[in-house]
Amino acid sequence: MLERSLRGIAGLFVLVSLLLAHYSSPLWLWFTAFVGANLFQSAFTNWCPMIWILKRCGVK
Q1: Contact 38/50 with Cβ under 8 angstroms?
Q2: What is the per-residue DSSP string for the chain?
Q3: What is the torsional sign of CA 17, 22, 26, 29?
Q4: For position 60, what pLDDT does the model report?
Q5: What is the distance between the alpha carbons of residues 60 and 25, in angstroms, rounded to a whole number?
Q6: Which of 10, 37, 40, 41 is the most buried (most CB within 10 A)?
Q7: Do residues 28 and 15 touch, judged by C-beta distance below 8 A?
Q8: What sign has the CA pseudo-torsion 56, 18, 28, 16?
Q9: Model confidence over 3-31: pLDDT tens digits?
């Protein structure tokens, strides 16, 4: 459930930031890059800040 929640949140963040970039300001693409960079680094370090947050919220 934890990894499924992580993928869902990451996908939601990317889609929302793309919508915001299209309708509001292209600066929102920096948020998209931030999410992608975190996913990329977690593949190598096996540590993700969102996992820590989800665990603190009680997701198992």
Answers
A1: yes
A2: -HHHHHHHHHHHHHHHHHHHHHHT-GGGHHHHHHHHHHHHHHHHHS--HHHHHHHHTT--
A3: positive
A4: 86
A5: 36
A6: 10
A7: no
A8: negative
A9: 899 999 999 999 999 999 999 999 999 99
Separation of alpha carbons 50 and 34, rounded Å: 12
Residue 45's domain comprises 2-56
Cβ atoms of 15 and 26 within 8 Å: the answer is: no
Q: d(Cα 38, Cα 48) in Å, to the nearest integer?
A: 7
**If you search the block for the tokens 């939601």, which residue do you land on?**
12
Question: Count of domains in the chain?
Answer: 1
Q: Give the angle 45-11-9 at the CA atoms, nearest 5°.
A: 75
Is this structure's pTM higher than 0.90? no
